[in-house]
Amino acid sequence: MVNFVGSSLLDSVRIKDVTCTACGMLCDDLVVARALNSNTLSVVEHGCSRSAALLQHPPAKPSARVHGKEVDHASAIQAATALLQQAKQPLIAGLGTDVQGMRAVLRLADHIGATLDHMNSAAMLRNTLVVQQSGWQVTTLTEVRNRADLIVAIGTDIVSALPRFFERCVWVEATLFDQAPAERDIVFLGGRHDDLGFASSPDGRPAQVLPCDMEQIPELVAALRALVTGRSLPVDQVAGIAMQDLQQLAQHLREARYSVLAWSAASLDYAHAELSIANITGIVSQLNQTTRSAGLPAGGSNGDSSVNQTSVWTTGYPLPNSYARQHPDYDPWQHSSAQQAAHADAVLWISSLDPSRRPPPSDTPTIVLGHAAMQFEQEPAVYIPIGTPGVDHSGTAFRCDSVVSLPLKPLRPSPLPSLSSVILDMEAALHASQKGDAHAD
Ligand code: SF4
């Protein structure tokens, strides 16, 4: 239910406790104003530039299109269904949606034997491989807020992935266990960041910065792991960082009561980056023998956490996976969009949260169930506009720490259908067509 707090002006209404889906933090404290005459939305309290971008689109219901020609919804559903029915290797990709949308997608994939992959799967896979190969000890945003006394950001400034991280989780006024948040120590290890003023403590103490190029992160985290384990390295520096500074950081980690090592899988964009993540989680594991430490995979966008969680609890497997053999089949290489692009004979691209995430250029017939503000350089075979969960209709989303799910409230009356209702229409058309075929036989 939408929580209205009255209107300061007669021409708008304020909605409080709005959850933002523009990044994996899912901040749930936004206050949003809705103009009564136009139903346009604006963030009036809390939020950040990404939340403003999420809500900036005016309500609109463009027509569905088939080969660029405007058609009614039913005709677009028929055209999309016909394409999927003819396909021998359909691919459902993009997957920018929430839990309810993904549940409908899984049903459809099972029905048509499709392969599934998310637009962020290359980054997601770097984390998934570590979970599968060695397991990990990771924490939640709430634990960071209440317990962390040392935060080491590795190869990331964190705020590029989670813009309000320091505001909501670090420089807070109070914690549950009387820890003084202003005394926290922040270290940026690796990467090169322009402006880290947001990471200075409220009394002006700057973060420690140990920079290096991203390509040198592998050797840096391997060295830090060796030092935390108690080994010595016969070199003066690693990746341009003085050995003395690394030894001090290893000591700091061993002495901290609750250290958090954060990374962003999207930033670690080099071959076999999962090995760097395994070294980071290996440091955490080593530290937990004598103190307390946890990893924090910072990131999440376009519903990747929600979609992956829904896949895991429904099928037992993360993405990408495939239903081509009538059962869930997990193979992160064979079923990736990059591999499937060469084999798929129909693509269903879904992007309900971000209109800029379009399907990659392709000669394969493509159906787009997409944001109403989407503009195409290459017109898809079929385009059906859908609403955004948490803006046009209700939904559920998972936070980047994967243990907290939050309800999403509609913020305005909207003519746009949800992804799950469009998929229901497609399933009805598929059933009707299959029944017709059976009668004809
Ligand atoms: S930090 Fe993320 S979830 Fe919070 S308001 Fe900004 S974009 Fe939205």
TrEMBL record:
InterPro entries noted in UniProt: Formylmethanofuran_DH_bsu
GO MF annotation terms: formylmethanofuran dehydrogenase activity
GO BP term, pick one: methanogenesis
Name of this protein: Formylmethanofuran dehydrogenase subunit B
Organism: Pseudomethylobacillus aquaticus
